[in-house]
Amino acid sequence: MKSLCIRVPKNDGETVRKKLLEMGVLNKKLMIKRNDFLYIPILRKINLGFEIIEKDFDDIEIEERDYKKIVEMPDRLRKLLPTAFDIIGDIAIIKIIDELLPYKKMIGDALLRAQKNLRTVCVDRGVKNECRIRDLEVVAGEKKTETIHNEYNIKLKVDISKVYFSPRLASEHHRIAKQVGKDETVIDMFTGVGGFAVMIAKHKRPKKVFAIDINETAIKYLKENIKINKVENIVPVQGDAKKVMKNIEKADRVIMNLPHRAYEFFEDALNSLKDKGIIHYYEIIEKDKIKKRTEELKKVCEKNGRKMEVVYLKSVKTYSPAEVKVVMDVKCIKAAREIFKA
Description:
This protein is an alpha/beta fold. It has helices at 13-23, 67-70, 75-78, 104-114, 170-179, 195-203, 216-228, 241-244, 262-271, 290-303, 336-341; strands at residues 2-9, 33-34, 37-41, 51-56, 86-88, 91-94, 120-128, 133-141, 146-151, 154-159, 185-188, 208-213, 234-238, 251-257, 273-286, 306-318, 323-334. It has eleven helices and 17 strands.
């Protein structure tokens, strides 16, 4: 479009541009033209000692970051689009209701346009089997499910169609790592590709981190991530945590990120602790049952000759109007008489 502009030598361009901006005269919707001179679009004539002429200019394209505004679909359905979605590396994972499935390709294309760092968009159709693997469909971009995810100065290689991984746990990975003391022994019962284990080994100096997972592919990626991050003291263990923990040395700290079944494994975690230790317990639970669950955990501790204290309790994610994912850091200390027996 045509606009008034001020013609200035290149050496004076930045100074003049800033002056025009301060005076509110710069036309910020049009691109500056460049050849032997700079032609800076302006909203009205102004005397700065340079020639003012009229020229054709290109509009500045303002990138829309909200995919919901640019997706091609009926307006009546737009309000049904989810606001939140996961980004793992350069892959987006989005859950959509059945009514939106006919528009999944358009939704994926809109996400790619709005988020320039993305290469692939997948629709999440839920979690399958005991390894918590997502049922995914690539709907836009590159046909891939392997990526490298960055968080707190570590890199995690992962195939999201073959192993469980949640980017929403990044702050938890970091929070737990900060608590680990020098020469601690840590057991990560459900390690996946090593989010907790690699973070701990990268930022702290543990004696050992035993990283367990029943998924053989997860352990393969864990081993790759150990190499990628150049960390030591992680011992990958493939197998059922209930069985393999019987052959692992006692720990100062146990991490239990299996939110749908954590309670089933709590006694196993307890029996893998030293006389005094911490269990980081994650569970998806109804809000009004959290207090009851805390009492149940205390009873398990008492049965095993331990005292328990909840030192940290927080909801880290909302799953439904009634359900939340909570984390409890519980300190478990063996009673004096039990220590004497041992």
